[in-house]
Amino acid sequence: MKKFSKVAALATFLSAGVSAGALHAQTAEVLHWWTSGSEQAALAEIRVAFEAQGGKWVDTPIAGGGNARAAAVNRMLGGDPATVFQFSIGQQLRELADQGLLADVNAVAEEENWDEKLPPLIVQAAKYDGDYIAAPINIHGENWMFYNKEALEKAGIEVPKSWPEFIDAAKKLEDAGIVPIGLGGQPWQERILFNSVLLGVGGREFYAQLYSTLDDELLASDTMRKVFETFAALKPFVDEASPGRNWNEATNMVIRGDAAFQFMGDWAKGEIIAAGVEPGTTVGCAFAPAVDTAYIMTVDAFAFSAMDGDEAQAAQQKMAQVMLEPDVQIAFNKKKGSIPALLDVPGDSFDACAQKAMTTLQDKETHLVSTGLFGVPSAVSGAIDDSISNFWNSADMSPEQGQEEFRQAISYAK
Ligand code: GAL
């Protein structure tokens, strides 16, 4: 890990409030994939706070998480790193730390007592060799089901609690001429739907065991077969224009009532809020149908490239400090659709869906994480996405074949 003298960094960071010259020197290029309306609005809350404290923000948006992560890594390997870059904390970020590509923000983390203020799971995931390699800024949930209430009324259905109930409801929606599932046909989105089915059919223990062990017996199990059968049964419920669609366009289908349901992380709720809809009013939220209650957490974070020069390091420290300021945490997360990463930030001003997430997370039994946070190596993550997407987009692959391809892909990649 690129060690730089804490004293120098802290000195530069604390002296930033003095000279204008030094102020402007604190330029941070921020590379990220937040290009949707709500994502931009949320990020602007951080930018405004950073600039209010004398920082200079250079924005480098790159559409699509995969593209942005690849760009950040290529820039680092090419010797032209971005000062700060968005990355989901987890195994992939560790692989960058392994290569010595990252800087730490320990000075701020100590100053701001992150060890106490962040959930242990996030502290553990944001550290490498005891160093904070990322500033975690939120907790998103991946197993949400957003729905258009009018569409459900039109089809005379209730919010489904199990997948068999969902399939019955979807048939009634079809009869009523409403697209049951608004889905963006991209591998990462198909994986999010698949994981909600996996959790819903197998239960939280099975989900946790599967992704933390990648155990072949679980991959070959009858439970996994049932997961693929249920996933396959959902294929007829998306519209033909689904392939390639962006997630926020699918969210808009639910907001407009062109589709009844979207299975997506609560960044979709950011779009609902940005559209002027109070979550829980015309658009409702529930956890995807499941046999038990769980919350698949994914944590957005910003990481810091290893760079020479006190100015870049001071800008990185300032950015990390600003991102975890309670006011910024509230302003950012309210627009982003997520909940604060900080434990001691009051949640009472958040919407009903966020309240549901916060209440649920009080029970540690409900805590699950997305694959990256389970330490699944990036090669395996890629194989998981590809095999799920191949199955979803295949007209003739049987659930058995889909299961076998998933199993093979994982055992080959791990
Ligand atoms: C995820 C990220 C979310 C949201 C989503 C869609 O990877 O964690 O914050 O931005 O991509 O862009």
- State Rg: 22 Å
Global morphology = globular
Distance between the termini: 26 Å
Low-confidence runs: 1-7, 9-23
Computed structural class? alpha/beta
Walkthrough of the structure:
By secondary structure, this protein is α/β, with parallel strands linked by helices. It has helices at 6-15, 20-25, 37-52, 65-77, 91-98, 106-111, 114-117, 120-126, 149-155, 163-175, 187-202, 204-213, 216-219, 222-233, 247-256, 267-274, 310-323, 326-336, 352-361, 378-392, 399-413, and strands at 27-32, 56-61, 84-88, 127-128, 131-132, 134-136, 140-141, 144-148, 179-181, 259-264, 283-287, 295-298, 300-304, 367-369. The strands form 4 sheets. It has a 5-stranded mixed beta sheet with strand order 2-1-3-13-6. A 4-stranded mixed beta sheet has the order 9-10-8-11. Helix 1 (6-15) crosses helix 17 (310-323), helix 3 packs across helix 16 (267-274) and helix 14 (222-233) crosses helix 21.
Write the layout of secondary structure elements.
Elements: H1 6-15, H2 20-25, E1 27-32, H3 37-52, E2 56-61, H4 65-77, E3 84-88, H5 91-98, H6 106-111, H7 114-117, H8 120-126, E4 127-128, E5 131-132, E6 134-136, E7 140-141, E8 144-148, H9 149-155, H10 163-175, E9 179-181, H11 187-202, H12 204-213, H13 216-219, H14 222-233, H15 247-256, E10 259-264, H16 267-274, E11 283-287, E12 295-298, E13 300-304, H17 310-323, H18 326-336, H19 352-361, E14 367-369, H20 378-392, H21 399-413
Parallel strand pairs: 1-2, 1-3, 9-10, 12-14
Antiparallel strand pairs: 3-13, 4-5, 6-13, 7-12, 8-10, 8-11
Helix pairs in contact: 1-17, 3-16, 3-18, 9-10, 11-12, 11-14, 11-20, 14-21, 15-16, 20-21
Bound molecules: beta-D-galactopyranose.
